[in-house]
Amino acid sequence: MMEFLHKRHARYFKFCMDSIPGEYTSLDTSRMTLLFYAVSGLDLLGQLDLVQDKQSVIEWVYRQQITSELCDGDLSRAGFRGSPANSSGAPLNQWDCSHVTMTYTALATLLVLGDDLSRVDRAALLSGLRALQLPDGSSLSSLHGGESDMRFVYCAAAVSYMLDDWSGMDREKTREYVLRSMRYDHGISQGPLLESHGGSTFCAVATLALMGELDSALTEQQRDGLVFWCLSRQGLGFNGRPNKQEDSCYTFWIGASLRLLDAYQFVRTDLLREFVYSTQDPITGGLSKWPGHGADPLHTYLGISGLSLAGQEGLKPIHAALNVSSDAVEVLRRAQARWRDLPPVKAVD
Which of 199, 200, 197 minimizes the C-alpha distance to 241? Predict the structure, then answer.
């Protein structure tokens, strides 16, 4: 019988922190996300002590922050970069701007490492979020174009939730965008009239949950339809769309959606574990997309975070909407309590 290779997965995440595999060179501008997978993965495994110099990692994350001082008054660029490769070293360069996914993963990484977020320029970050929201309620990934879909709506909502301030988002427009993206088959797509997908369904459900509107926004029929669509994704593991192969990353995307919809009890966790275990690399550690393929940081992290939802022994509990451990959420709660004793901040145009 297969078993969960706890120590090997910890070793894999540590390797990803120490030296990014060569095949990920093209993702250098997204290094913040790769760091998040590794750090948060070690946290879920209870192996965060393998990060011997946490403060150095914290300092690296803060060096990617574009603060109000660097913006020279143009707060629309504020937030976090994905890596130093995004910076020219010239504060006034118009192309030096944040990316909303990197801002989300930067804040999450800081929380996992126990940072109190006291150096986060909250007003600037909120202003940067406001500049990314489009009239239809979707959000751009970055100021200078790019895609605008449910992924970045979720990242903006997660940042707003962590900063305990929604002045950077129009929640009414956001809710309407989510509802317009619900499809005839009861799943949710990246945007109106597109195909239902497991990843976008999570992003939409989690966005409503973080805004505190999951119960009020959805009718009973819509909620039941979502549950049915998500449960229909399971064979052994979960797939992301009808007639697609099971994929370890949906262990989290679909699993977390069901947890947020109070329907996780209907998941066959025994079958789910069997599938996820089959994607493990017994030599290097890590999880692959499918059995017999190479491990990668994204599928390793999402597979493990999905197993946390399933109550896997040896893993910390996870916050289904934020995708960080319960310990990281406690760090966040302390930061938010401190902010409430300070003068309020808000986004500016």
Answer: 197
What tens digit of pLDDT does each residue of 262-313 get? 999 999 999 999 999 999 999 999 999 999 999 999 999 999 999 999 999 9
CA 162, CA 336: separation in Å to the nearest integer? 8
Instruction: Write the Ramachandran bin of 218: left for phi over 0, alpha for psi from -120 to 50, otherwise beta.
Output: beta
Q: Which contacts (CB < 8 Å, 24+ apart) does range 50-54 have?
A: 50/10, 50/13, 50/14, 51/14, 51/17, 51/113, 54/113, 54/114
What is the Cα gyration radius of the chain? 19
Q: What angle do CA 327, 329, 332 make, to 5 degrees?
A: 120
- Residue keyed to tokens 């129009």: 170
CA distance 300 to 13: 9
Q: Is the model's pTM score more than 0.85?
A: yes
Cβ within 8 Å of residue 68, ≥6 positions away:
75, 78, 121, 123, 124
Report DSSP state, residue 330.
H
Q: Are 119 and 80 in contact (CB under 8 A)?
A: no
Distance of CA 6 to the CA centre of its chain: 22
CATH 3.40.190.10 fits 6-19+30-339, yes or no: no
- Rounded distance between C-alpha atoms, residue 168 and residue 161, angstroms: 11
CA distance 338 to 315: 29
Distance CA 24, CA 294 (A): 13
